[in-house]
Specification:
By secondary structure, this protein is an all-beta fold. The chain folds into four domains: about 100 residues, no CATH class; about 100 residues, no CATH class; about 190 residues, no CATH class; about 50 residues. The two termini are about 45 Å apart.
């Protein structure tokens, strides 16, 4: 129809069109898309009516209107944040002719309907008869809306309840790809899968997961493997890694302590924190840890973050060398990854902890936080003279192109408010221990976990304290929005 309008949803990481959104009953002159807002998987789009739409499916969840303005509710602008929305109507006449108004909607929708994908007792598929799902630890939902999961099993075909299965969905249909005691892909004759760890799924249609192996030739030194997709080996312990050859031969990984998968990356870039097997290819306790980036076909693309190497640090000229890495790695959707560990000062001395963000396809590191260095306090200062320094680094992550760190600090003249989150390049903490929440008398006691999400926001698993807090209500999941800073 002429000027009926449409809205186009894109993946900003790849530039690919995901979906065209249109009005449910389009007519000419609707101008659908004349104003819109996006938050998570919800969009608020204005046409001849104002629609709340699930962008995953394109379905209309509800139409927005107000009882006193049903005939002329045509917002010129809208804003959406989670389950809250504001619509601005410059032509609203309630107070005077076209005096305008802004309408606040809360909540936009009740609990969304849930779809049961599978449940305990369901068959895992005809590929594995007499076997049922028993438990589902840590399923991973991808940006395409499908999910991957590792499930424990029951039934006669479950190896006495010891087996696990790696499964995924395609349009809500279960695909059980591999199970304990299946032959391991491309490993060796008679080698089978012993177990799985929960997968990561940050790319459409592709998950990354870790499995342990058993069978002929498998030892404690070569049984840990990382796979991607439906069976491509990314890296395995006990196998030489030529890119880490420093002149004494190719070393072997002893263990992988953490892995990540870069979101929405065409190459399926996997970050792996490793420890090398000692006494193989000259490896000692002074060079046995580091971070590898590998694409999902097993090619190692980045390996300079290794104990003993001297990194290039933006804006800092010294010859400090990497010491022991902490065995952690973090990625987000931009061309950087984060890691922490000890640094050996140039010329010797006591090793210090330091967190970096590091280029995916370059050698430059950017300092996020360093033990003993100044920790910005910003408006959290209790006096203009107060100072603070980083004492210990507890965890790290990436939000877009910037690293962040969860750390403890030492403050001049006080012991409270000594733990928080700092983002690279910012002059104020994201949050500090002891901060009071909206509910009066409710304070942040501990930060347990941190997950970065879109638009520079952070999801926090936290412990609370205060007069109204007890053991039944002291744990919370909170979103720390970038607009708060």
């Amino acid at each position: 129809y002429h000027e009926d309008g449409a809205a186009y949803l894109y993946d900003v990481g790849t530039g690919s069109l995901i979906r065209k959104l249109t009005a449910p009953n389009p007519v000419g002159g609707d101008h659908f898309g004349s104003a819109l807002a996006l938050s998570g998987n919800l969009a608020l789009i204005v046409g001849s009516k104002t629609y709340l739409i699930d962008v995953q499916t394109g379905d209309v969840i509800r139409e927005l209107s107000v009882a006193d303005n049903t005939s002329s509710f045509f917002p010129r602008s809208v804003s959406l944040s989670g389950n809250l929305a504001v619509a601005g109507i410059t032509t609203d006449d309630d107070l005077d002719t076209e005096s305008g108004a802004a309408y606040f909607f809360r909540p936009l929708a009740g609990p969304l309907p849930l779809t049961t994908i599978t449940q305990r007792g369901d068959s895992i598929g005809t590929k594995y008869p007499d076997t049922e799902f028993r438990d589902f630890p840590m399923p991973a939902i991808g940006p395409d809306g499908d999910l991957s999961f590792c499930a424990t099993l029951s039934g006669p075909g479950s190896g006495g309840g010891r087996d696990k299965v790696m499964a995924s969905t395609l349009s809500n249909s279960i695909l059980s790809s591999r199970k304990s005691r299946d032959l391991a892909p491309g490993v060796g004759v008679g080698v089978v899968i012993q177990s799985f760890r929960p997968p990561i799924r940050n790319n459409p249609g592709v998950s990354t997961y870790e499995m342990t192996l058993r069978g002929p030739g498998i030892t404690p030194f070569n049984r840990q493997a990382i796979f991607s997709g439906f069976g491509t080996q990314v890296l395995r312990t006990g196998i030489p890694i030529p890119s880490l050859d420093a002149g004494n031969g190719a070393p072997e990984a002893l263990t992988f302590s953490e892995m990540t998968q870069k979101p929405n990356d065409a190459n399926g870039l996997v970050g792996i924190a490793y420890r090398l097997r000692p006494k193989v290819a000259g490896v000692t306790a002074t060079d046995d840890s580091g971070i590898i980036l590998a694409v999902n076909n097993g090619t190692v693309s980045r390996f300079d973050a290794r104990e003993g190497n001297v990194p290039t640090i933006q804006g800092i000229i010294n010859l400090d060398a990497y010491g022991q890495f902490f065995g952690r790695v973090a990625q987000h959707d931009q061309n950087y990854y984060a890691h922490s560990g000890y640094m050996i000062p140039d010329g010797g001395g006591t090793p210090v902890q330091q967190c970096f963000s590091h280029q995916d396809f370059g050698a430059t590191n950017y300092n996020v936080a360093r033990q003993g260095a100044a920790a910005p306090l910003g408006s959290y200062r209790f006096s203009p003279e107060e100072t603070a320094s980083f004492r210990s680094l507890l965890g790290e992550g990436m939000v877009g192109s910037f690293g962040f760190v969860r750390a403890r600090i030492s403050r001049s003249g006080r012991s409270s408010g000594n733990e928080g989150i700092w983002r690279e390049g910012q002059t104020i903490p994201r949050i500090l221990k002891g901060e009071e929440f909206d509910a009066p008398g409710t304070f942040l006691q501990r930060i347990l976990r941190v997950w970065p999400v879109g638009d520079d926001h952070l999801i926090l698993l936290i412990k609370l304290s205060g007069p109204a807090v007890n053991s039944r209500n002291d744990c919370a999941l909170a979103m720390l929005e970038a607009v708060d800073f």
